[in-house]
């Protein structure tokens, strides 16, 4: 059987390539590190390092063992965090990330619900793209977030997610542009005409991608709507395009390329440290209720 101290010593020596460097990193004597690794080797029945000069060279067995040892260390760290959280004072301040295409009516209802049900809780609503927002969630700079989800949601850090529903995107062109008068928007149009792509969609790593040979990335949906009056096309969420349609600036273009609107899944993301937080538990239930109203 191994101990956590043995695993820490093994991982440190592997990373630092030296018993002395591992000792300095763990604030232990070189001799202590060597004894921990030696006792681990004895329990395993094979060597983990060979010594060449002052360097500790990992054996083939150590190479295979290392990623599993790192995983155990990470899981232990998360266990410590959750254990400490269970005895800590409940959080009363949350920084929340949200994608700009997420229904604002949904967020408004959450804000009002928090004010009514958790009067001591304060929330900062921070617009973020999926890529940067998940990195902030990983670094605990965000507490939870509403972002687009990949089909097989996979993250490189421990987190939970809760599927909420789909945001519909349509193909839009200028109401008086040459594309608006065409009987059909064809593949050739998608490839050869200018495509305006939101920076947010580009960084979301989802189904909204660059299809045209001439793609322009724009940060603002409002600017895209203005640009579409003269040229090009764009895939926009129906909600964000609604104002431009009402003002007669743009129109939704039916096309044989899309039999229906593109449906992009959105989820609530939160780190495992908050899974037992009473506010997060209540939030998940409220999101379930609201999702039936605002998502298809």
TrEMBL record:
Which UniProt keywords are present, listed alphabetically?
DNA-binding, Transcription, Transcription regulation
- Domain named HTH lysR-type: which ranges? 1-59
Which InterPro entries would you find in this protein's record?
LTTR (IPR050176), LysR_HTH_N (IPR000847), WH-like_DNA-bd_sf (IPR036388), WH_DNA-bd_sf (IPR036390)
What GO molecular function annotations does the UniProt record carry, in alphabetical order?
DNA binding; DNA-binding transcription factor activity
Please name the Pfam families in this protein's record.
Answer: HTH_1
Annotated family = Belongs to the LysR transcriptional regulatory family.
Q: What protein am I looking at?
A: LysR family transcriptional regulator
Q: Which organism is it from?
A: Vibrio chagasii
């Amino acid at each position: 059987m191994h101990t956590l101290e043995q695993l820490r010593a093994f991982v440190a020596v592997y990373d630092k390539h030296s018993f002395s460097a591992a000792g300095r990193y763990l604030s232990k004597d070189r001799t202590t590190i060597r004894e921990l690794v030696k006792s681990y080797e004895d329990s395993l029945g094979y060597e983990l390092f060979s010594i060449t000069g002052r360097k500790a060279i990992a054996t083939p067995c150590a190479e295979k063992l290392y990623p599993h040892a790192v995983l155990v260390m990470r899981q232990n760290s998360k266990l410590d965090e959750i254990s400490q959280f269970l005895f800590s004072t409940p959080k009363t301040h949350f920084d929340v990330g949200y994608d700009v295409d997420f229904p604002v009516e949904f967020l408004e209802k959450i804000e009002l619900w928090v004010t009514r049900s958790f009067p001591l809780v304060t929330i900062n609503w921070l617009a973020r793209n999926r890529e940067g927002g998940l990195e902030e969630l990983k670094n605990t700079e965000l507490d939870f977030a509403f972002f687009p989800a990949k089909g097989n949601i996979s993250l490189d850090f421990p987190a939970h997610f809760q599927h909420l529903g789909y945001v519909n995107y349509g193909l839009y062109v200028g109401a008086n542009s040459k594309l608006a008068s065409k009987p059909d928007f064809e593949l050739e149009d998608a490839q050869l005409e200018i495509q305006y792509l939101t920076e947010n969609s580009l960084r979301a790593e989802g189904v909204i991608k660059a299809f045209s040979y001439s793609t322009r990335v724009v940060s603002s949906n409002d600017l895209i709507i203005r640009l579409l009056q003269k040229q090009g096309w764009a895939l926009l969420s129906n909600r964000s395009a609604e104002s431009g349609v009402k003002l007669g600036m743009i129109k939704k273009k039916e096309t044989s390329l899309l039999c229906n609107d593109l449906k992009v899944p959105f989820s609530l993301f939160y780190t495992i440290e908050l899974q037992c937080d009473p506010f997060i538990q209540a939030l998940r239930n409220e999101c379930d209720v609201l999702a039936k109203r605002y998502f298809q």
